[in-house]
Write a structure and sequence with these properties.
mainly alpha; about 60 residues; 2 helices
Length: about 60
């Protein structure tokens, strides 16, 4: 059960990172994050963190 939770949470974090990246790059407008360089840089970092979490959950051995 925990293994699946890590994968799901990691995927959600990665998707949020993608959203932040697109908002920072001003592809998605309508928020205070739109067109802000910080989010264009932080988004890909958040994506990597989410992918690492998901990969760690997928590699974890079940008990």
């Amino acid at each position: 059960m925990r293994k699946r939770l890590w994968v799901v949470v990691g995927a959600v974090v990665a998707l949020l990172g993608l959203l932040f990246t697109l908002q920072g790059a001003d592809v998605i407008g309508g928020s205070a994050m739109s067109g802000t360089t910080f989010w264009a840089v932080a988004g890909p970092i958040i994506i990597v963190i989410g992918l690492v979490m998901a990969a760690a959950g997928a590699r974890r051995r079940g008990r």
